[in-house]
Amino acid sequence: MVDPTHFGYGDLRFSWGDHICAIFDDPSQQAEVMGGFIAQGLRATQRCVWVGPASSAGSFREMLAGMGGDLPTLEGSGQLVILSDVDFYLRDDLFDPDRTLDLLRVLLEEGQRQGYRAMRIATDVSWLRGHRMDPSTWESFEGRLTQEVSVLPCLLYTSQSPRD
Fold this sequence. Notes:
Layout: E1 19-23, H1 27-43, E2 47-52, H2 54-66, H3 71-77, E3 80-84, H4 85-89, E4 90-91, E5 94-95, H5 97-113, E6 119-124, H6 135-149, E7 154-160
Parallel strand pairs: 1-7, 2-3, 2-6, 6-7
Antiparallel strand pairs: 4-5
């Protein structure tokens, strides 16, 4: 039986509602951790959402396929959702915290209707480096996000890729 609370990297475990943040020095390490995180959720029959730069979606799909994932079936069933960071976080190039939180809830509820009791979401927030935003806006969002996720059958893993 697959442990639904195994992170998918090393011996790490989590509790539902956790919000984990990481910054990496090496893009291959970030890909390894994100890939393991999502692959473990797929094995545990959880809804898995990957949010990242559109330019990285192809390599992320290749990595999951290399781990044995049947991507057409996973995506067709709704168990795996791959979104661009722009589509998840921005509307008309502006960050809208309420919209992002609403989208997170919709993804969870939609997955539950499809039979996935829990959801893992992995996001790459590297877009923040090039986006002008008041840091207090992001800090406030992160606080609200942590509070809202804390009561959901959801695990949120946020990472930032290294500078190019």
